[in-house]
Amino acid sequence: MENQDVLQAQGGRAMFACGGQSVKFPVPVFIRESASVVGKKEGQGPLAELFDMVGEDDLFGCNTWEEAESGLQRDALHLALSKAGLHSTDLRYLFAGDLLGQSIATSFGLAQFERPLFGLYGACSTCGLALSLGAMAISGGFAEYAGCVTSSHFASAEKEFRFPLGYGSQRPLSATWTVTGSGAFILSGSRGSRSRAVITGITPGRIVDFGVKDSLNMGSCMAPAAAGTIQQNLQDFGRRPEDYDRIVTGDLGSVGQRALLDLLLERGVDISAQHMDCGIEIFDAKKQDTHAGGSGCGCSAVVLSAYILKQLEEGKWKRILFVPTGALLSKTSYNEGKTVPGIAHGVVIEHVE
To answer: What is the helix, strand, coil percentage profile of the chain, to 5?
Structure first.
């Protein structure tokens, strides 16, 4: 076997490192089921008929935006478990996160499931982070079932990172619209009677900072990290862009997409034929006022569950590289004049033969 594909022994421990940054799973990790819950605006977009649940209003019957986002996670996980024919007690671990301070959408949303929780924060890359860690736990034999959940909400995110909605600030054309939605995924080490897809490897991302300070142009902040992860994945697995049916970023939008393609072309890598961005797919740029597209933890999660896994499950695509992207900023760092670093986590997902 080639060095990047073989079992590497270090001090008697089994190591499945692949290349300089990736992991190739010796035991495949199946995505047994998934579910997507979105808000009213997302339910008016081009993927509307594919979502499992669409809210009639973005409060979802709750008193606050934050309570509504917790409800998104709760509903998404309930739906995913029900579709898989499982109970919450079947889950060994939960890997979950959101955009809010201290991840309150997750803690209040998932507490009733009473499962061990790994609370995660990777900004808008959290879906990739959760799937990566969940898959490592499954493939390593530490769990038979694991749940991966993430969410975002337009109103709670604006309140957390920018202004109260009543402020009525004007958004530049480079800005993206935070998706109101939650995606939940049930991972397993066994195929079962039905599985939507299989995770065969990951490329965890590095923090990349190109010195961008514009928090309303997060596509440009995140594009360098996405470029680095994609290039590293191709190098580690010895692949070319055409070895993937799609290379899917999470939240770059139209501005970030152009930056990503240009950055990779400068390095001799052309993914223009394979690239797709969840933030571009979820909204209709001509009919919906979302400027550069969608973003948020929920953006890549609901598009993966509703649309991407459907293509893999039906065999239309055989292998994709899923690369959610995150902008690592806070109100504090932004107000202190700091730059906006980015991170992107790559997950290789394939059709189950």
So the answer is: 40, 25, 35
Give yes or no for a contact between 178 and 135, defined as CB atoms under 8 angstroms apart.
no
| CA distances to 65, 91, 168, 257, 316 from 296, in Å | 15, 26, 20, 16, 27
Angle (CA) 198 105 33, round 5°: 20
Start-to-end CA span in the chain (Å):
23
* Pair 185, 151: CB distance under 8 Å: no
Q: Is residue 159 part of a domain?
A: yes
Backbone angles phi, psi at 68, to 5 degrees: -60, -40
Q: What is the pLDDT of residues 176-216, one digit of tens each?
A: 668 899 999 999 999 888 899 999 999 999 999 887 777 66
CA-only gyration radius of the chain, Å: 19
Same domain? 28 vs 90: yes
Give the contacts of 112 (CB within 8 A, at least 6 positions apart): 74
* Residue whose pair of structure tokens reads 């309930």 in the numeric block: 78
Question: pLDDT tens digits for 55-87?
Answer: 888 888 899 989 999 999 999 999 999 999 999
Measured CA angle at 131 (ends 130, 133), to 5 deg: 65
- Among the three residues 167, 188, 209, which one is the final residue of a domain in this structure? 188
Total of domains in the chain? 2
Q: What is the CATH number of the domain that holds 47?
A: 3.40.47.40
Range of the domain at 95: 16-188
Which residues in the chain land under pLDDT 70? 1-15, 159-177, 215-217, 290-292
Tell me how far apart the alpha carbons of residues 293 and 298 are, in angstroms, rounded to a whole number.
13
Query: What are the phi and psi torsion angles at 346 (to 5°)?
Result: -100, 135
In a domain, 2, yes or no: no
Structure tokens at 193: 């009677």
Residue 98 lies in a domain: yes
CB of 218 closer than 8 Å to CB of 256: yes
User: What are the backbone dihedrals phi and psi of residue 184, each rounded to the nearest 5 degrees, phi first?
Assistant: -130, 140
The model carries a pTM of: 0.91
Answer whether residue 193 is part of any domain. Answer: no
Last-in-domain residue among 188, 208, 240: 188
